[in-house]
Amino acid sequence: MPRKHVVRTHTIRRMNFETLAIHAGQPPDPAYGAVMTPIYQTSTYAQNKIGEAAYDYARTANPTRTALQDCIAALEGGKHGLAFASGMAAIDCVIRLLRPGDHVLASNDVYGGTYRIFKRVYEDYGVQASFVEMSDLDAVRAAMRPNTRMIWIETPTNPLLKVADIAAIAHLRDAVRAAPQIVVDNTFASPYAQQPLKLGADIVVHSATKYLGGHSDVVNGLVALNDDATFARLKFLQNAVGAVPGPFDCFLVLRGIKTLHVRMERHSANAMAVAAWLESHPRVERVIYPGLPSHPQHAIARRQMRVFGGMVSFVVKGGPEAARRVAEGTKLFALAESLGGVESLIELPAAMTHMSVANSPLEVSPALIRLSVGIEHVDDLIADLKEALEAR
Ligand code: P1T
């Protein structure tokens, strides 16, 4: 590799987020100087001598994946990164740090798939999960058990956008003898809005399918952390279990990340305007957005987040039927699961993304609508919502 590029790789970690988003883990390629990280579409690598190759098999490692892993580590302010085939594969790998008899204390509002993997997969392997209001520190303290080995925080949560004080929970954890690891699912905020490792969390997970990818064209999961021993175990599991992403998917996420900071600013500005408009609409009962002063944890969000993100949830007057009509009535907001892409989406969590929490304590109101506010012109977004809300 030309010397200049070696220097760049080493100095880059001290740079600002915007610079890291574009460059971290991605020096010009050593083979031909390609400025964009090549898609190393190979399953194996020729070795000169046995045991001396930088790469030996692509489940174990791939240079395009290495670039993505180094990039997410830098963006989260961590030492190590790992990439997976999906957000759920990343979550699965982190849960595998637990053993039968261990307990995980999780937020009482999480992505339906996260609830499902705890209750319908890992409980069968002896891992106990319970769910608590993470914004209530007394409740968190009271819900800890002697065998609590992990605290699983989503903030903001999916879909109720509850905000947990990561630093306060880390402080509380420090007083517990078992010292459970704190995991933060940072999907909704993205590392541009908040960096949990700097607030005392141990592990960050992402569905990179969302804001990191940013264009609704890839499914991917990422993990970032500092601790060397935990990283060694997760890296072992990544290879042993094998839920790794292909190189093209890694390339797409790297490309998405280059504009993360610009997109998050616009997502957040648009979401704030949409939330404020909805709050003043007579057919809307309640709006949930961490950037609104009416949000119960607005003060924590202001302290913890650089921007408030692009997700807005709201309840319309008229119950589930009215909610369904609005969700099916928009033209620009596509009725679809997922979030975090440049285009705006609308959905009913109870009937779509969160069906797996039906009839559980985490059940979501069937009247709740969730928006993923995109980066289109905000006037067009509001006009679309107005038409759907006011249709008879
Ligand atoms: O879909 P996947 O990349 O496997 O990520 C799962 C996941 C993990 N964590 C959070 C907070 C998520 O929101 C998700 C996926 N969520 C949706 C598909 C959704 O529409 O809410």
Structural class, please? alpha/beta
Mean of all residue-level pLDDT scores? 95
State Rg. 21 Å
Number of helices: 14
Global shape = globular
The helical percent reads: 25-40%
CATH C-level of the largest domain: Alpha Beta
Counted up, domains total: 2
Bound molecules: ligand P1T
Strand residue percentage: 5-15%
CATH architecture of the largest domain: 3-Layer(aba) Sandwich
Low-confidence stretches: none
Biggest sheet strand order reads 1-7-6-5-4-2-3
CATH superfamily of the largest domain: Type I PLP-dependent aspartate aminotransferase-like (Major domain)
Largest sheet: 7 strands, mixed
Distance between the termini: 65 Å
State the total count of DSSP E strands. Answer: 12
Output the helix-strand order. HHHEHEHEHEHEHEEHHHEHEHEEEH
The name of the CATH topology of the largest domain is Aspartate Aminotransferase, domain 2
Would you kindly provide a written description of the structure presented here, covering whatever features stand out?
With 392 residues, this protein is an alpha/beta fold. It is 37% helix and 15% strand. It has helices spanning 3-11, 17-23, 63-75, 87-95, 112-121, 137-143, 166-174, 190-193, 228-241, 247-257, 260-279, 298-304, 319-329, 378-390, and strands at 80-84, 103-107, 128-132, 148-154, 181-185, 203-207, 221-225, 284-288, 311-316, 334-335, 345-347, 368-372. α5 links the parallel β2 and β3 (128-132). The chain is globular. The mean pLDDT is 95. The structure holds ligand P1T.
